[in-house]
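Re: your question from the hallway

Yes, I did run it. Sequences:
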Amino acid sequence: MTRWIPLWLHRLSSPPTFYRFAGAVWPWAMGLALVAGAIGLYGALVLAPPDYQQGDAYRIIFIHVPSAWMSMFIYAVMAVASFVAVVWRIKLAEVVAMQSAPIGAAFTFITLVSGSLWGKPMWGTWWTWDARLTSELVLLFLYLGVIGLYHAFEDRRQGARAAGFLAIIGIINVPIVHFSVNWWNTLHQGSTINFFGTSKIAADMLWPLLVLTLATKLYYVASLCRRARADLLALEGNKAWVHELVAPEPAP
Amino acid sequence: MSGSWQAFLDMGGYAAYVWPAYAVFLAVLLGDSLVPTLRRHRIVQELRARLVRQAVRQDAAHAATGNESGATAAPSRST
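Structure:
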């Protein structure tokens, strides 16, 4: 048990092996993400009843909350991968960390925009400098900082190392985002979903939320695989395995 | 039927907030999924061009030295 796991991980961290692995994984992840997304959106927009307080405006929750979870989840993945990259200098960990950043930034952007569009009719304002909103905005700036720092270096691996340090330091913001609604008095409502107790939401509203959460997770897997594959081709452009891949069939 | 469709689009009066939120969600993820496709295409084009240049240079070198062993652009796997 303890012997084969590191061996398996070691093999998978080899760029050509991961390239093939990711190539086999992403079509399935993307296909399942699209199916789950379609079912979830139908449940969210059609099947779920209107909220007794917020009417139909609450339907923004079905994309806002899964995106907000992804913004924190992807940051955690990026920070852990950066830690592995900085400590053990594994090339694939750098790729996973740096290719996760734009996807995380995309979900953070969706969270902020959908939250703003939800805040206007419910709170009467697009934006307020409240703890939850501000810490989520800081999360977006951390993603943009990681992306910018990565591209600021001529040497990509050096850039990944520097940006990795920033990603590791920035992880402190993730629990701040999560607990901000408990620690401070905020305009933002508290957690709707409680995984260790009773959720404050009806079952016919809960299932589309969970299905869309699954869809965003699967989408992340697919997008990360595709980005990592493209990045590995660029990083390993001088290696024989890439030449074999891109070279047209030799004429007989 | 058309009435319920109208009610669906109206979103209980919140159409101006609900639909843009969903549009941003779908548009951003669609954009994100296009990035690796375009990048991969560009990288493969660049690598192919580089391989062709290398092959031309090698052929020229072989022709200059009279070596006709016929090395090609695709080296065999080293490991």
